[in-house]
Amino acid sequence: MEEDFERAVEDGLRLSKRLVLPGGAAPPRPHAGMDRYGAPDAAAASSLLPVAPMAYAVVTDPAAVDSPDVPSYQPHVYGRLSPPALIPLQMREVELRVDCAAGCATAEVTLVARWWLHCLTRSRDCDCRLVVPMGEEGSILGAEVTVGKKSYNTHVVDVDGNSPVKIVKTESGGILKSQFFQLTIPQVVGGEDIFATIRWSQKLLYDNGQFSVDIPFRFPHYVNPLPKLFTKKEKIQLTVNSGVSKEVLLQGTSHPLKEKTRQGEKLFFLHEAVVENWSIKDFTFSYSVYSGDVSGGVLVQRSTLRDYDDRDIFSIFLLPGNNQKRKIFRKAVVFIVDTSGSMQGKPIENVKNAISTAVSELEEGDYFNIVTFNDELHSFSSCLEKVNGKTTENAINWMNLNFVAQGGTDIMHPLTEVQYLENYTS
Predict the structure, then answer these.
(1) Domains of the chain, earliest start first
(2) Cβ(215)–Cβ(96) below 8 Å
(3) Who's near 207: CB < 8 A, 6+ residues apart?
(4) Is the pLDDT score of 370 beyond 60?
(5) Distance CA 209, CA 252 (A)
(6) Axis-axis angle for helices 346-360, 389-402 (nearest 10)
(7) What is the pTM of this model?
(8) d(Cα 188, Cα 148) in Å, to the nearest integer?
(9) What percent of the chain stands above pLDDT 70?
(10) Count of CB atoms situated within 10 Å of the CB of 188
(11) How far is it between the farthest Cα atoms of the chain?
(12) Which residue, among 380, 382, 374, 381, has the nearest Cα to 404 in the 3D structure?
């Protein structure tokens, strides 16, 4: 599918050579790695997968390709394109909002952008496709799109057919490949603006005492409109919720952020500037929380009217601190693992790998157990097991056999079981 996508964009870039932009200017010159026809050479083909949120015109009739304002009077082109070509649309506005919550280990990203259908005559229309690359372990949260008087938004639906609303399956949205989300907007008229608000979440990384986030934000040169016609304003807002009342130290950032305010555990940063070209590098940000001792907290998030699941959620987190001389105390750890059907695939594998690592790093003399739950409850042992080479090996073998994602979710039973295990050790 990625090869088909790249080929369609290659065809679209060739078609865009027919355009005469306002003022009689030619289309932007191809960057290094493209041949003299404006198409990528074999070595640069991988660059056609988007590395920032993008919009494309889905063109089946090449004769419709023209500037909406200044006709180019190019020779007529006969025939139709199958599969369609994808012409990258020029972007007029962009705003990036990032909310980092250390306690949830997630960054919630909101991108607000305006594209315009600059490559189709005003007498014609075509579908337009939005493609969003997401960062580490990205998950789409929602999208709202407005074109003229028409509005579109995404919804979470019950794919098992139990929803009271009849769902008609279409190919208007879905996953292009891992970490890419696409959404098709039908029948956009040449010259119209596409206003989009796209939200997704991705993993907030933690390594060597630093939290960091890396968001795809590299726009190719051909999405830049002519600077004399459009003033390009780039805006990035960043909110950091450390979750603890400790000092937060900025370690690095890709864009020039200014700290605006600090309110308790929250910090607010802003970058706003008129730019000649849209960003050509990903948005990256890293910070650390200074603490001489172990610290942590609890984050609670209430459900909203737009949530498919109306239950509240919470997150408990601990930060190790910077005290390297701290005496390590003996631990008794119970790992509670959700093995319901929603954990199928990569999630259950990630949990298994994480617990295998955690159990292997426990010290001899520590105690542990593993409890899994779905509709039923299963325990590695009936009591807390003392850590040694044999019990660690047995635990990993047990996880390989019993970490099977299926069934529903009943969390109260394992919580009760943990309270019972506190009083029993091997």
Answers:
(1) 1-19+49-157+169-289 (2.60.40.1730), 332-423 (3.40.50.410)
(2) yes
(3) none
(4) yes
(5) 13
(6) 170
(7) 0.71
(8) 9
(9) 77
(10) 25
(11) 85
(12) 374
